[in-house]
Structures are given as structure tokens and as C-alpha cells.
DNA sequence: ATTATATATATGTATAAACATACTAAAACA
DNA sequence: TGTTTTAGTATGTTTATACATATATATAAT
């Protein structure tokens, strides 16, 4: 386990990558401390300063927590969405080393309801791609997504049926968007959602409605997310400007 | 324009604050470059390394853009993804034109529980101001707040008992803070909350935990908010950097 | 005039060293 | 036994220094 000092890739970047892999190791998962900075640095044959460059980045992303006089540990793997970081769901889970299981995927091509067509600024007689996904940890599902895509995304649905499944599942990677508006609220699970999320009717659900726009601020996706309350926390960091 | 080298506030934090003010100056607004790192550093009588600590933070936040061989400029001043929703409750309701009724106000002076003392970075044997507020529309309450204030806010509790009520009720206006971190989740109403909000036990609640910091990023308020699900939506607007 | 080439400038990377501060745990003390 | 002191450990802050690399500009060669 060491770095390539000859590589053109800066050492602090290499160290960062290595740390990202390292913190996925179960051995650091339960609040156990990482080795101290000086030891890691000497192990990697880099200076403490350089190592700290790498650590700082992960701390900023909320993956690591440092405490003076104590040490550095991996942040609790509770699922959070930092609006600042703009990580997609899959990316965030990957970053935290949480294995994601896809329980259901439903791709359909539908006439949009009026309020959806309204947001996407299209007519209701034009079919669009509807994507339903049920995802979670191996133990069980914890989120149910429904997405509607504007035709200009190129995701017309017809083509997507031909794509391999895993390609579609990883789709959120590819949608490069600029602006999103979200509405977060709490509601109780109805029969449908309770069934999907394997919980009881009436149990609390964190409901997220997301409006996604492209670089030109044209609407491209309308997304609904139903999160099991006990497995999702939404975090927001804001600064007075 | 210089820093206080005697202050307990670290120089890179002071530099960061100063830069935040600096970049608001119209003189840097139209893509014009800041002075170079070495000049700023010598101007502030700190090392380049320390200055870069401050600069890096603003770069991370997308406020500054650096280019090797060229210089550092202020990023286009579009609505920062972080300045989302920085309205206080009263302000927000006012903006929405909703008349607010205060149902209950409870000012007390308590020994903080450990996790609160921990966040506020004080000891548990030091009394602090606890403020409980039940608010809503004329028809009925829809939010229950609990706030704990750090002594350095000056809200020691003792003084506040002497203030007129309306003054305390409008207090959130006066607390000028810089940074806040919020965690939003859904939960069910327990007996206490259900009673306060005049709803049923088990009904969905939007729960918001808020950590508020001052300009030096020292904790000043710990705030809990319980919102009746059917009357509150949390909105977030974010922009990719 | 156009194209190389050198040079100045600004950020990027990396190190070693020293001291400060928060926290923990062991040792000394009452 | 319980409390205080002390030493040890880990992160936090800061500096001074050196060289690397990307960019823009001025200079020299074609």
C-alpha cells in the first residue's frame, strides 16, 4: 500500500483516492479510528501536510470526521444528501461504500399527466419516458423513485429498452444538469408506497419532489422520491451571502 | 486592512472572513482578478500557505475560481447554491403573507443535556437559555420550536425575562449568523408533539435539526423544529459548480 | 509579418519543522 | 476511594522554502 512518486498525478490526489478506498473497509466502519496522520503519512512516504490536503477534502465532503486530541473516523453511514455536493444517489452511496441493491426497475413510455407536462413544457399527447426504481440496501428497499424525462434528454424510452439493464440503472451519472429545485416534505405511507418500501401504511415518509433543469434552465426531469423515514436524513448547509 | 495576530481566532479563518467581504466589492465583480497570493499574504502579514487555506475553502464553495498561471477571480455571482432559504421562520411566513399566531412561549434557563453542550462547546454545569415556541396560523399551531442558545449570544435568559414579550418573539431577526447546517428528516409524532400540534400520535412530522454558527464558525444556536407534515414544505435550490 | 523562443508571473505541489490545543488515560495525591 | 496532576497522543495552526507547471507577454529568429 503505497503511492507512485514518479506519477504525474499529484501525491495528494493519489492519497485521496487511496483514502476513499480505505474508508470503505469494514475495519473502519463502526466508528473505529483511522491510523493517525503521522503514521499514514510515513506509511505512504509523504509529508503530513500533503496527507492533510487529501484528508481535508474528505472531511469537507462529510465522509470523515476529525476531532482534535482524538483522531479521525469515518462518518456514520447514514444516508444524507448534501445539496452542496450535488452527488447523485448512486455516487453518494458508492462514496460511502454502501452497497446498493436495485429491487425493481420499471421503464415505461407514457402520456404525461397535466401537471407534469406543464412543468416539462410539453403537450400531453406526446409520450415521454417514465422510470420507476425501487432501491435500498441488501436488507431491504428504502427509497422509491419515479422520474419523468423531457424528450430532449434523448431518453425517449424506445432506445432505452434496448440498452442493457445495468446501463439504465446507472443513468443518473449521465444526466448532466445545472439547476435543481427541490421540495421536501413529510407524509404518511399510503398502501402503494408502504407496499413498495415494505413498511406499514401510515408510517412516516420523507417525500422529495425534484425539478431538474439543464444549462439553459429548461426543464429536463421531474423526479419524485419516497424515502423511508428511519433511513434518510436530508442535510443542508447554507451561508448568508 | 489587516488581521489580528493576537486573536484566538486562527489566521486562516480571519483571512477567510476578510476574503468573503473583499469579494463582495464591486471592484472584483466583473471577472477582474484578485491580487496574487503572495501579495495578499504579505499584505495580511501571513504566509502564503495560511492564505491558501482560506482561499481553498472559498474555492471549494465555488465562490472563487483559480487558474494556474493566470490568477484568482470571483466566480459569477449567481445565486449561490448555499444561500438557499436563509429566511428565518418569521421572515419566511411574512414573505408568504401568512399571519402568524404565537400560541405558546416558554423561556427557561436550563443545564444543557450532554449532546447539546457538546455542540455548543460548553460544559453541562453552565446554564443556558432554552426557548420553546409553538406557532402557527390562526386556525391552529403547525410548528413547535425548541432552541438552545450559547451564552455568547448575550441571551442569557435572565435579561430576556425583563424584555417585552414581543421583543423575544421577534428575536430570530436579531441573531445575525453566518453558517448553518440543517438535517431534515421525517418522523411520527409522539404524544408530546402530537399534543402540542393538536394532531394525532403517529401522524407524520417534518423534523428539522438546525446547527447555527457565527462568523467565526463558532456554534451559537441549536434548534429543533417539528412541523406538521401537511402544512410545511422545505424547498432547496441548488446549482452545480 | 509570422513564428519560435525566452521570460516573467501566478498558481500548484511538496517538505520539514515547530508549537498550540483538545482530549485521554495513567500516576500521584488527598 | 475519589480527585487532581501530569504525561502522552492526535489533530490544529503557522511559517519558510523550493521547485513544478500553466499562461501571457515580450523578444528574437525565420
Which features characterize this protein?
27% helix, alpha+beta, Arc Repressor Mutant, subunit A, 8 helices, homodimer, DNA-binding, six-stranded antiparallel beta sheet, Chorismate lyase, 10 strands
Regarding quaternary structure, what we see is homodimer
Fourth CATH level, the homologous superfamily of the largest domain in chain A: Chorismate lyase-like
How many distinct domains of chain A?
2
Count of β-strands of chain A: 10
Strand order of the largest sheet of chain A: 4-5-6-9-8-7
Radius of gyration of chain A using CA atoms only: 21 Å
* CATH topology title of the largest domain in chain A: Chorismate lyase
β-strand amount of chain A:
25-35%
Distance between the termini of chain A: 43 Å
The SSE string of chain A, one letter per element, is HHHEEEHEHEEHHEHEEE
Q: How is this structure best described in words?
A:
2 copies of one chain form a homodimer. By secondary structure, chain A is α+β, with helices and mostly antiparallel strands. Chain A folds into 2 domains: 11-74, Winged helix-like DNA-binding domain superfamily/Winged helix DNA-binding domain (Arc Repressor Mutant, subunit A, Orthogonal Bundle), CATH 1.10.10.10; 80-235, Chorismate lyase (3-Layer(aba) Sandwich), CATH 3.40.1410.10. The first copy, chain A, is 27% helix and 32% strand. Chain A has 8 helices and 10 strands. Chain A has helices at residues 11-22, 37-44, 48-60, 89-95, 114-120, 158-162, 165-169, 191-197, and strands at residues 64-67, 71-74, 80-82, 101-110, 128-137, 140-149, 179-188, 204-213, 219-228, 233-239. In chain A, the strands form 3 sheets. Chain A has a 6-stranded antiparallel β-sheet with strand order 4-5-6-9-8-7. The longest helix of chain A has 13 residues, at 48-60. Chain A is elongated and about 65 Å long. Mean pLDDT of chain A is 77; it is low at 78-86 and 162-177. Chain A binds chain B through residues 56, 60, 80, 83-84, 86, 177-188, 202-207, 227, 229, 232-241, and chain B through 56, 60-61, 80-86, 176-188, 202-207, 227, 229-230, 232-241. Strand 7 (179-188) of chain A pairs antiparallel with strand 9 (234-239) of chain B. The structure holds a DNA duplex (30 and 30 nucleotides).
Amino acid at each position: 500500500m503505497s503511492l507512485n512518486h514518479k506519477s504525474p498525478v499529484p501525491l495528494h490526489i493519489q492519497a485521496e483516492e487511496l483514502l476513499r478506498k480505505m474508508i470503505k473497509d469494514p475495519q473502519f466502519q463502526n466508528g473505529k479510528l483511522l491510523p493517525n496522520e503521522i503514521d499514514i503519512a510515513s506509511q505512504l512516504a509523504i509529508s503530513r501536510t500533503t496527507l492533510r490536503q487529501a484528508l481535508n477534502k474528505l472531511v469537507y465532503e462529510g465522509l470523515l470526521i476529525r476531532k482534535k486530541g482524538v483522531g479521525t473516523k469515518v462518518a456514520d453511514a447514514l444516508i444524507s444528501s448534501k445539496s452542496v455536493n450535488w452527488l447523485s444517489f448512486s455516487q453518494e452511496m458508492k462514496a460511502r461504500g454502501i452497497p446498493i441493491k436495485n429491487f425493481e426497475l420499471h421503464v415505461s413510455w407514457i402520456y404525461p399527466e397535466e401537471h407534469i407536462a406543464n412543468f416539462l413544457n410539453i403537450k400531453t399527447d406526446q409520450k415521454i419516458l417514465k422510470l420507476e426504481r425501487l432501491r435500498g440496501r441488501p436488507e431491504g428497499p428504502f427509497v422509491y423513485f419515479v422520474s419523468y424525462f423531457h424528450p430532449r434528454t434523448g431518453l425517449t424510452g424506445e432506445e432505452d429498452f434496448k440498452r442493457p439493464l445495468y446501463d439504465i440503472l446507472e443513468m443518473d451519472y449521465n444526466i448532466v444538469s445545472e439547476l435543481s429545485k427541490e421540495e421536501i416534505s413529510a407524509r404518511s405511507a399510503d398502501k402503494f408506497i408502504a407496499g413498495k418500501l415494505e413498511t406499514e401504511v401510515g408510517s412516516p415518509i420523507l417525500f422529495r419532489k425534484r425539478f431538474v433543469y439543464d444549462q439553459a434552465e429548461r426543464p429536463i426531469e421531474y423526479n419524485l422520491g419516497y424515502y423511508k423515514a428511519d433511513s434518510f436524513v436530508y442535510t443542508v448547509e447554507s451561508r448568508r451571502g
